[in-house]
Every structure is written in C-alpha cells, then in structure tokens.
Amino acid sequence: QVQLVESGGGLVQPGGSLRLSCAASGIIFSSYAMAWYRQAPGKQRELVATITSVGRKNYADSVKGRFTISRDNIRNTVYLQMNSLKPEDTAVYYCNASLQSFSSWGQGTQVTVST
After folding, report:
1. Low-confidence ranges of the chain (pLDDT < 50)
2. 11: helix, coil or strand?
3. C-beta separation of 48 from 37 below 8 A
C-alpha cells in the first residue's frame, strides 16, 4: 500500500524558512516523479514544484528562486526547502507521487506565514 507522509509545516514569519519532507513507502521510490502542490483556503490546488525520477526539476513562477525541491532515493524522501516565505505562501502543502497513470497523495501539512 502506497503511503506518503508529509512533515515540517508550521507557523513562520515573513522572510523565514521551512523545510518540508515527504516520506514514501509502498513504491519503488526512485522510479516515481515526485511533486509538491499547495492549496490555500478558497483556492484550487496548484503545482509548486516537481522532480522527475532522474532529478529534473520544475517550479511554479511564484516560487522560483525561493523554493528548492530535492529527493533522496536512499531515504525514499522528497524535500521542499522554502526560503523568503511570504504570506501568500500560506496553504496546505501536499506531496504527490506519480508514474504513468498512477498518482498518490499525502494528507498534507499546513504552512502559515504570518506575523
């Protein structure tokens, strides 16, 4: 059974940093593309960053230069390093694993950027 467990969310002041983690089990992690999405209250879920099985990365324009996605295929974990956080980054952040037509989601972790 596939399981994705996010951690690392919390409350941070504007300009601060957080690192999110997503630990995967039940899949051959190295074969999967991994991604982070987020959903703010009253808004649709949006793609934040992706990393392919071979390490190619892509970012939403809104986070380019501030966020970094990475993966550790030994620890079966994907990370999202978030720097220079802004109030508009406040959302529930979700981890996603995908391979061909298969897609699985984590439960999400709340990130709140506020004074």
Report:
1. none
2. strand
3. yes
